Amino acid sequence: MRIKKPKFNKEISRMLQRNIESSTMDKKDFDVQTKVEIIIPTLNEESSIRELLQSIRANSFPVKTSVLVIDGGSTDQTIEICKQEKTEVIKQKGKGKGTAMREAAEYSKADIIVFIDGDGTYSINDLGSLLEPLLKQEADMVVGSRLLGEREKGSITFLNNLGNRIFNKAINISLKTQVTDSLTGYRAIYRDVFRQLVLFSENFEIEVEMTVEALTKGYRVTEVPISYKNRRDSETKLDPTGDGAKIAKTLFFVIMNVKPLLFFGIISAVFFGIAVYPSSIVLYEKIVNKVKAFTEVSAGAIKAELKIELNKPMAITLQKAILPLVSTTISNKSITTTENMASVRAGLELPSLKASRFNNMNSI
User: Fold this and answer.
1) How far is residue 331 CA from its own chain's centroid?
2) Whole domain around residue 129: which residue ranges?
3) Is residue 292 predicted with pLDDT exceeding 60?
4) What residue ranges in 4-131 does DSSP mark as E strands?
5) Co-location of 239 and 118 in the same domain
6) Amino acid 255: pLDDT
7) What is the enclosing helix (H) or strand (E) of 145?
8) How far is 20 from 3, CA to CA, in rounded Å?
């Protein structure tokens, strides 16, 4: 998988403009008869769809490009605006963005299909970056990465960004890739390749499913940087928690089928950790109890042998001297109290005892 550098973005956009004489793309590098269709799933996008359609018409490309809007049941003026802009509109039979994308791909007769949201968050100026690797037959699917390009502040919420990075990490670990934006809604793909992908998702999770499916089937997937803007006068249809759970479920299902050993290995490790936790608590309590018992016995022995009363500071000092012996005592129960006493005498410093008392200890 190749990642394009951001500086390449503007260069490719210039390449695909007919009206720029300095274009460096040789028309011999691709078939001018190639047909490209831009597919726009919509649901109540009256505030942004007109601007998007007009920006598509304002751009010029070296191949034949058409636009197909598939509407999921808009109750506003979305369909009427599309008709005013002389854009072909078909009504979605099922529900969800994933269903809309599959239905539109089956309806389309183009060689290359481009998916773009109708909410105005993606720029048509980046279309050249997505098309160029396909027109040159250098990739089978090109993904527009929002994380590699420029984003407006607040365009991606904290939860969405966190979920995206987690999913990307899971994909990269499982498939040994370098995906940066598996959830982007802006991507171009050969229609024949799209039809070879096994896709079941009905909603937003279709994007991560497309990414994983294409990579596991060995298709060439390339990421290019794109810009990303805030939505214009409309609320997002993406539920961070609900859709995030669906995306995670889809990702785990795909990885389970693609990498079963890795998937079940992770599951086993999780359950092993859950099982070890209570056992570690029991073991810890046993060790603590042995420490307390050993401290009490040792304190009693010293008290009887030295014939002194241990005050609080002396007891604390005694405990510090005994603790290093705990591990030895637990592992080797044959150590006697006399041996422990010898170790205590070597390291114990009782501030309230006189020097003569220490000298007497050596003769005990």
Assistant:
1) 45
2) 2-258
3) yes
4) 35-42, 64-71, 88-91, 112-115
5) yes
6) 61
7) strand 141-145
8) 26
